[in-house]
Amino acid sequence: MKVGCIGLGDIAQKAYLPVLGVLPGVELHLQTRTPATLTRVADTLHLPAGQRHTDLDALLAQGLDAAFVHAPTAVHPEIVTRLLEAGVPTYVDKPLAYELADSERLVTLAEERGTSLAVGFNRRHAPAYAQCLEHPRELILMQKNRIGLPEEPRSMILDDFVHVVDTLRFLVPGPVDDVTVRGRLRDGLLHHVVLQLAGDGFTALGVMNRLSGSGEEILEISGQDTKRQVINLAEVIDHKGQPTVRRRGDWVPVARQRGIEQAVLGFLDAVRAGKVLSARDALATHELCERVVHAVLEYSGPAA
Fold this sequence. Notes:
The protein is an alpha/beta fold. The protein has helices spanning 10-20, 35-44, 56-60, 76-85, 100-113, 127-130, 153-171, 254-257, 260-273, 280-300; strands spanning 2-6, 27-31, 52-53, 66-69, 90-92, 117-119, 139-145, 178-186, 189-199, 202-209, 216-223, 226-231, 235-240, 242-247. The chain is 37% helix and 27% strand.
């Protein structure tokens, strides 16, 4: 099975290549426009010259069975279009694109070509989060905070807050009938954003503070007198009377803890089985992110 990896930045090197590089039956091909990075990463994986590529045409000429896209978001539309037009099942690191129109076009193109398109919302596969589906979820609170990192609204929401948006959509126990957004925008930079989703019997809050003084990700779900907390995807605390704490095992790989290994294996299993994966649900997350972008700009008014 020939699998391409396009873009060799931090996420590819830390999260995806440790999984892809050891899978039996996978012939891994790397592509980046930066020769020094290509050499360094390919040497680490002991890949021969024929599996190293500096342009997309050379990679596509290999007759790929699947591809993973980890290039910068701005070039996703161009790269994904080329892959889908070549009939290559494609897994894209979130988001599909910065602009909703581009995301819509890519999803439509994949459907027209009958080709798999998947978006890397790995938290849906992270064991600590996936297991929350088994618990009461009358109130959901997710925080994903950073230190000293206010950013332009669209890039912050589509590159980072998108994880919060998608995780809330994944965990809400029913249809959402009310959406509320608040944010603080100063000098064109978004300091924090709050998203509330509500439906029959539940409320879900997503919070991101880019000036929080702490880099952290905390999920809390509660209902029927029980509460579960998940801290940084690694520590699970169940509250029912006395709290009980369960931490990630010493030998559990980070890629498995964060759901990346499961997402990769699930995608490749579908490709092998000839199952076409749709990104239509992922598009709904992008649509909600677009709503958040517009609401933040409208709520905040002119930048101070």
